[in-house]
Amino acid sequence: MQRGISAFTRVFDALWLRRTGTQVDGPRIISAPRRKRGALRSIRGTGNRFRRLSPTRPGASLSPMDAEAAPPRSITTHLRGVLNAARGAWAQTARLALDIALPTLCVSCREPVHGEGVCAECWSRLSFIAPPFCPRLGIPFVYDPGPELLSMEAIANPPAYQRARAAVRYDDVARTLVHSLKYQDRTDLAPAMGRWMVRAGQELLDEADVLVPVPLHWRRGWSRRYNQSGALARVISRQTGVKLASEALRRVRATEQQIGLSRSQRASNVQGAFKVAADRSADIQGRRVVLIDDVLTSGATTDACARALLRARAAQVDVLVFARVVDTHRAPI
Ligand SMILES: [Zn+2]
Prior knowledge:
Blueprint: H1 2-20, H2 39-53, H3 75-101, H4 120-125, H5 152-156, E1 164-169, H6 172-183, H7 190-200, H8 202-207, E2 210-213, H9 218-224, H10 228-240, E3 243-244, E4 249-251, H11 263-270, E5 274-276, H12 281-284, E6 288-296, H13 300-311, E7 316-324
Parallel strand pairs: 1-7, 2-3, 2-6, 6-7
Antiparallel strand pairs: 4-5
Zinc ion binds next to helix 4.
Protein backbone atom coordinates (compact mmCIF):
# COMPACT_ATOMS: atom_id res chain seq x y z
CA MET A 1 0.00 0.00 0.00
CA GLN A 2 2.89 2.29 0.93
CA ARG A 3 4.41 1.61 -2.50
CA GLY A 4 1.06 2.37 -4.12
CA ILE A 5 0.84 5.70 -2.35
CA SER A 6 4.41 6.64 -3.27
CA ALA A 7 3.74 5.65 -6.92
CA PHE A 8 0.63 7.85 -6.87
CA THR A 9 2.67 10.73 -5.39
CA ARG A 10 5.33 10.32 -8.10
CA VAL A 11 2.76 10.35 -10.89
CA PHE A 12 0.96 13.34 -9.32
CA ASP A 13 4.26 15.25 -8.95
CA ALA A 14 5.17 14.54 -12.59
CA LEU A 15 1.77 15.70 -13.84
CA TRP A 16 1.90 18.78 -11.61
CA LEU A 17 5.33 19.70 -13.00
CA ARG A 18 4.08 19.23 -16.56
CA ARG A 19 0.99 21.35 -16.06
CA THR A 20 2.31 24.17 -13.93
CA GLY A 21 6.03 24.27 -14.72
CA THR A 22 6.64 24.18 -10.95
CA GLN A 23 7.59 21.38 -8.63
CA VAL A 24 5.09 20.52 -5.91
CA ASP A 25 7.56 21.18 -3.08
CA GLY A 26 10.42 22.65 -5.04
CA PRO A 27 11.62 25.83 -6.71
CA ARG A 28 9.71 27.41 -9.60
CA ILE A 29 11.03 26.14 -12.93
CA ILE A 30 8.88 28.02 -15.39
CA SER A 31 6.89 30.98 -14.16
CA ALA A 32 3.27 30.62 -15.23
CA PRO A 33 1.40 33.92 -15.45
CA ARG A 34 -1.45 34.47 -12.98
CA ARG A 35 -4.71 33.52 -14.54
CA LYS A 36 -7.48 36.05 -14.66
CA ARG A 37 -10.87 35.10 -13.25
CA GLY A 38 -13.22 34.26 -16.11
CA ALA A 39 -10.35 33.46 -18.47
CA LEU A 40 -10.79 29.79 -17.70
CA ARG A 41 -14.42 29.76 -18.75
CA SER A 42 -13.83 31.63 -22.00
CA ILE A 43 -10.85 29.49 -23.04
CA ARG A 44 -12.69 26.31 -22.09
CA GLY A 45 -15.46 27.46 -24.37
CA THR A 46 -13.06 27.62 -27.31
CA GLY A 47 -11.43 24.35 -26.26
CA ASN A 48 -14.16 22.40 -28.00
CA ARG A 49 -13.39 24.20 -31.22
CA PHE A 50 -9.74 23.31 -30.87
CA ARG A 51 -10.56 19.67 -30.18
CA ARG A 52 -12.71 19.44 -33.24
CA LEU A 53 -10.03 20.98 -35.46
CA SER A 54 -7.29 18.88 -34.03
CA PRO A 55 -8.38 16.09 -31.71
CA THR A 56 -5.77 14.94 -29.21
CA ARG A 57 -5.41 11.32 -28.27
CA PRO A 58 -6.54 10.80 -24.69
CA GLY A 59 -3.91 9.38 -22.38
CA ALA A 60 -1.11 10.09 -24.83
CA SER A 61 0.49 12.55 -22.46
CA LEU A 62 1.68 10.12 -19.84
CA SER A 63 4.10 7.80 -21.54
CA PRO A 64 3.48 7.29 -25.25
CA MET A 65 6.47 4.97 -25.46
CA ASP A 66 4.87 2.41 -23.11
CA ALA A 67 2.08 1.90 -25.63
CA GLU A 68 4.49 0.02 -27.90
CA ALA A 69 5.24 -2.72 -25.37
CA ALA A 70 4.60 -6.24 -26.71
CA PRO A 71 1.69 -8.19 -25.19
CA PRO A 72 2.74 -10.10 -22.02
CA ARG A 73 3.26 -13.86 -22.32
CA SER A 74 5.11 -15.44 -19.36
CA ILE A 75 3.89 -15.18 -15.75
CA THR A 76 6.50 -12.50 -15.05
CA THR A 77 5.43 -10.45 -18.03
CA HIS A 78 1.80 -11.05 -17.13
CA LEU A 79 2.49 -9.71 -13.62
CA ARG A 80 4.31 -6.76 -15.14
CA GLY A 81 1.24 -6.15 -17.29
CA VAL A 82 -1.00 -6.18 -14.21
CA LEU A 83 1.37 -3.78 -12.41
CA ASN A 84 1.44 -1.49 -15.46
CA ALA A 85 -2.36 -1.53 -15.54
CA ALA A 86 -2.41 -0.63 -11.82
CA ARG A 87 0.08 2.14 -12.49
CA GLY A 88 -2.16 3.30 -15.35
CA ALA A 89 -5.11 3.39 -12.96
CA TRP A 90 -3.07 5.45 -10.47
CA ALA A 91 -2.07 7.78 -13.28
CA GLN A 92 -5.73 8.16 -14.30
CA THR A 93 -6.69 8.96 -10.70
CA ALA A 94 -3.82 11.43 -10.37
CA ARG A 95 -4.83 13.05 -13.66
CA LEU A 96 -8.45 13.30 -12.52
CA ALA A 97 -7.33 14.86 -9.22
CA LEU A 98 -5.22 17.37 -11.16
CA ASP A 99 -8.02 18.13 -13.61
CA ILE A 100 -10.13 19.14 -10.66
CA ALA A 101 -7.31 21.00 -8.90
CA LEU A 102 -5.71 22.63 -11.92
CA PRO A 103 -6.56 22.88 -15.63
CA THR A 104 -3.99 22.07 -18.36
CA LEU A 105 -2.07 25.08 -19.62
CA CYS A 106 -1.42 25.94 -23.27
CA VAL A 107 2.21 25.06 -23.96
CA SER A 108 2.76 28.34 -25.78
CA CYS A 109 0.93 31.10 -23.84
CA ARG A 110 0.26 29.13 -20.61
CA GLU A 111 -3.41 30.06 -20.54
CA PRO A 112 -5.77 27.25 -19.45
CA VAL A 113 -6.73 24.93 -22.28
CA HIS A 114 -9.17 22.03 -22.55
CA GLY A 115 -7.08 19.01 -23.55
CA GLU A 116 -3.36 18.98 -24.28
CA GLY A 117 -1.17 21.07 -26.55
CA VAL A 118 -1.97 24.60 -27.66
CA CYS A 119 -5.06 26.77 -27.16
CA ALA A 120 -7.29 27.82 -30.06
CA GLU A 121 -5.63 31.23 -30.28
CA CYS A 122 -2.08 29.83 -30.48
CA TRP A 123 -3.29 27.15 -32.91
CA SER A 124 -4.57 29.90 -35.20
CA ARG A 125 -1.16 31.63 -34.94
CA LEU A 126 0.67 28.54 -36.26
CA SER A 127 1.53 29.05 -39.95
CA PHE A 128 0.60 25.77 -41.59
CA ILE A 129 2.37 25.33 -44.92
CA ALA A 130 -0.02 24.71 -47.81
CA PRO A 131 0.36 24.82 -51.62
CA PRO A 132 1.72 26.53 -53.61
CA PHE A 133 5.23 25.50 -52.59
CA CYS A 134 8.46 24.33 -54.22
CA PRO A 135 7.91 20.65 -55.12
CA ARG A 136 11.51 19.88 -54.18
CA LEU A 137 12.13 21.82 -50.94
CA GLY A 138 8.56 22.48 -49.81
CA ILE A 139 9.33 26.21 -49.38
CA PRO A 140 6.02 28.11 -49.68
CA PHE A 141 5.57 30.44 -52.68
CA VAL A 142 3.77 33.76 -52.33
CA TYR A 143 2.06 33.13 -55.68
CA ASP A 144 1.54 29.99 -57.75
CA PRO A 145 4.23 29.77 -60.47
CA GLY A 146 2.60 26.65 -61.95
CA PRO A 147 3.29 22.96 -61.43
CA GLU A 148 6.81 21.53 -61.26
CA LEU A 149 8.49 24.93 -61.08
CA LEU A 150 11.31 24.82 -58.55
CA SER A 151 12.44 27.52 -56.14
CA MET A 152 15.73 29.34 -56.81
CA GLU A 153 17.11 27.67 -53.70
CA ALA A 154 16.41 24.18 -55.10
CA ILE A 155 18.05 25.07 -58.43
CA ALA A 156 21.10 26.77 -56.87
CA ASN A 157 21.73 24.19 -54.11
CA PRO A 158 19.96 20.94 -54.99
CA PRO A 159 19.84 18.75 -51.87
CA ALA A 160 20.82 15.08 -51.66
CA TYR A 161 17.23 14.21 -50.73
CA GLN A 162 14.40 14.13 -53.26
CA ARG A 163 11.66 16.18 -51.56
CA ALA A 164 11.12 17.94 -48.25
CA ARG A 165 7.82 18.81 -46.58
CA ALA A 166 7.08 20.64 -43.34
CA ALA A 167 3.88 21.05 -41.35
CA VAL A 168 4.45 24.64 -40.23
CA ARG A 169 6.80 27.61 -40.59
CA TYR A 170 9.31 27.90 -37.76
CA ASP A 171 7.85 30.93 -35.96
CA ASP A 172 7.17 31.78 -32.29
CA VAL A 173 4.49 29.19 -31.51
CA ALA A 174 6.29 26.47 -33.52
CA ARG A 175 9.55 27.28 -31.71
CA THR A 176 7.83 26.91 -28.31
CA LEU A 177 6.36 23.55 -29.33
CA VAL A 178 9.71 22.28 -30.63
CA HIS A 179 11.60 23.45 -27.52
CA SER A 180 8.99 21.96 -25.17
CA LEU A 181 9.25 18.61 -26.94
CA LYS A 182 13.03 18.72 -27.13
CA TYR A 183 14.12 20.13 -23.78
CA GLN A 184 11.16 19.85 -21.39
CA ASP A 185 10.17 16.22 -21.91
CA ARG A 186 6.77 17.27 -23.27
CA THR A 187 6.29 13.98 -25.16
CA ASP A 188 2.53 14.59 -24.88
CA LEU A 189 2.92 17.13 -27.70
CA ALA A 190 4.26 14.52 -30.14
CA PRO A 191 0.83 13.07 -31.13
CA ALA A 192 -0.55 16.45 -32.29
CA MET A 193 2.71 17.49 -33.97
CA GLY A 194 2.97 14.07 -35.65
CA ARG A 195 -0.59 14.32 -36.98
CA TRP A 196 0.13 17.70 -38.56
CA MET A 197 3.26 16.18 -40.13
CA VAL A 198 1.25 13.28 -41.56
CA ARG A 199 -1.10 15.75 -43.22
CA ALA A 200 1.79 17.80 -44.67
CA GLY A 201 3.74 14.75 -45.83
CA GLN A 202 0.90 12.55 -47.12
CA GLU A 203 2.32 12.48 -50.64
CA LEU A 204 5.71 11.30 -49.32
CA LEU A 205 4.29 8.84 -46.80
CA ASP A 206 2.03 7.19 -49.39
CA GLU A 207 5.14 6.04 -51.29
CA ALA A 208 7.35 5.34 -48.26
CA ASP A 209 8.73 1.95 -47.20
CA VAL A 210 10.40 3.05 -44.01
CA LEU A 211 10.68 6.00 -41.60
CA VAL A 212 14.09 6.95 -40.20
CA PRO A 213 14.41 9.60 -37.44
CA VAL A 214 17.47 11.86 -37.43
CA PRO A 215 19.56 10.34 -34.63
CA LEU A 216 21.14 12.05 -31.65
CA HIS A 217 24.66 11.15 -30.61
CA TRP A 218 24.40 8.64 -27.75
CA ARG A 219 25.94 11.14 -25.31
CA ARG A 220 23.26 13.72 -26.04
CA GLY A 221 20.63 10.97 -26.05
CA TRP A 222 21.66 10.05 -22.50
CA SER A 223 21.50 13.57 -21.17
CA ARG A 224 18.18 14.25 -22.89
CA ARG A 225 16.79 10.73 -22.28
CA TYR A 226 14.94 10.49 -25.57
CA ASN A 227 15.18 11.62 -29.18
CA GLN A 228 12.48 14.10 -30.19
CA SER A 229 12.67 13.04 -33.87
CA GLY A 230 12.20 9.44 -32.74
CA ALA A 231 9.10 10.45 -30.75
CA LEU A 232 7.60 12.13 -33.85
CA ALA A 233 8.55 9.19 -36.09
CA ARG A 234 6.82 6.73 -33.71
CA VAL A 235 3.60 8.75 -33.87
CA ILE A 236 3.75 8.93 -37.68
CA SER A 237 4.50 5.22 -37.98
CA ARG A 238 1.55 4.33 -35.72
CA GLN A 239 -0.77 6.57 -37.68
CA THR A 240 0.27 5.56 -41.20
CA GLY A 241 1.49 1.99 -40.72
CA VAL A 242 4.81 2.83 -42.41
CA LYS A 243 7.57 0.75 -40.80
CA LEU A 244 9.93 2.51 -38.40
CA ALA A 245 13.70 1.90 -38.46
CA SER A 246 14.87 3.90 -35.44
CA GLU A 247 18.23 2.19 -35.11
CA ALA A 248 19.23 2.13 -38.78
CA LEU A 249 20.91 5.52 -38.95
CA ARG A 250 23.58 6.30 -36.34
CA ARG A 251 25.37 9.48 -35.44
CA VAL A 252 28.93 8.18 -35.41
CA ARG A 253 30.53 11.49 -34.47
CA ALA A 254 29.33 14.00 -31.88
CA THR A 255 28.77 17.36 -33.57
CA GLU A 256 28.65 20.89 -32.25
CA GLN A 257 25.28 22.62 -31.98
CA GLN A 258 24.40 24.07 -35.40
CA ILE A 259 23.12 27.29 -33.81
CA GLY A 260 25.25 30.31 -34.71
CA LEU A 261 27.17 28.56 -37.51
CA SER A 262 27.24 29.77 -41.12
CA ARG A 263 25.84 27.65 -43.93
CA SER A 264 29.22 26.20 -44.94
CA GLN A 265 30.23 25.68 -41.29
CA ARG A 266 27.00 23.77 -40.71
CA ALA A 267 27.72 21.52 -43.69
CA SER A 268 31.28 20.71 -42.58
CA ASN A 269 30.14 20.28 -38.94
CA VAL A 270 27.88 17.36 -39.88
CA GLN A 271 29.94 15.91 -42.75
CA GLY A 272 30.57 12.21 -42.12
CA ALA A 273 28.67 12.36 -38.83
CA PHE A 274 26.02 9.82 -39.88
CA LYS A 275 26.26 6.21 -40.97
CA VAL A 276 23.85 3.35 -41.58
CA ALA A 277 24.65 0.56 -39.11
CA ALA A 278 26.08 -2.48 -40.96
CA ASP A 279 23.59 -4.85 -39.27
CA ARG A 280 20.66 -2.64 -40.29
CA SER A 281 21.52 -2.11 -43.96
CA ALA A 282 18.69 -4.47 -45.00
CA ASP A 283 16.21 -1.92 -43.57
CA ILE A 284 17.55 0.72 -45.97
CA GLN A 285 18.84 -0.98 -49.11
CA GLY A 286 16.39 -0.57 -51.99
CA ARG A 287 13.85 1.18 -49.71
CA ARG A 288 12.10 4.50 -50.14
CA VAL A 289 13.02 6.30 -46.94
CA VAL A 290 11.30 9.25 -45.27
CA LEU A 291 13.71 10.96 -42.90
CA ILE A 292 11.97 12.52 -39.88
CA ASP A 293 13.21 15.56 -37.93
CA ASP A 294 11.70 18.34 -35.80
CA VAL A 295 13.14 21.38 -37.57
CA LEU A 296 14.71 22.03 -40.98
CA THR A 297 17.03 25.04 -40.88
CA SER A 298 19.83 25.13 -43.46
CA GLY A 299 19.19 21.52 -44.39
CA ALA A 300 22.84 20.57 -43.61
CA THR A 301 21.90 17.85 -41.10
CA THR A 302 19.15 16.33 -43.23
CA ASP A 303 21.45 16.46 -46.27
CA ALA A 304 24.23 14.62 -44.39
CA CYS A 305 21.67 12.01 -43.24
CA ALA A 306 20.30 11.64 -46.79
CA ARG A 307 23.84 11.09 -48.14
CA ALA A 308 24.48 8.39 -45.54
CA LEU A 309 21.18 6.67 -46.46
CA LEU A 310 21.94 6.90 -50.19
CA ARG A 311 25.43 5.46 -49.57
CA ALA A 312 23.63 2.51 -47.96
CA ARG A 313 21.71 2.20 -51.27
CA ALA A 314 18.36 3.65 -50.24
CA ALA A 315 16.16 3.82 -53.37
CA GLN A 316 15.03 7.36 -52.48
CA VAL A 317 15.19 9.71 -49.52
CA ASP A 318 12.49 12.27 -48.71
CA VAL A 319 12.41 14.52 -45.65
CA LEU A 320 9.46 15.31 -43.39
CA VAL A 321 9.85 17.82 -40.55
CA PHE A 322 7.51 19.52 -38.11
CA ALA A 323 8.73 23.06 -38.83
CA ARG A 324 11.00 24.66 -41.38
CA VAL A 325 12.74 27.99 -41.39
CA VAL A 326 11.40 30.03 -44.29
CA ASP A 327 13.55 32.88 -45.56
CA THR A 328 10.88 35.15 -47.00
CA HIS A 329 13.42 37.09 -49.09
CA ARG A 330 14.64 34.03 -50.96
CA ALA A 331 11.54 31.83 -50.99
CA PRO A 332 9.61 33.15 -54.00
CA ILE A 333 11.00 32.84 -57.51
ZN1 LIG B 1 -2.07 29.51 -26.18
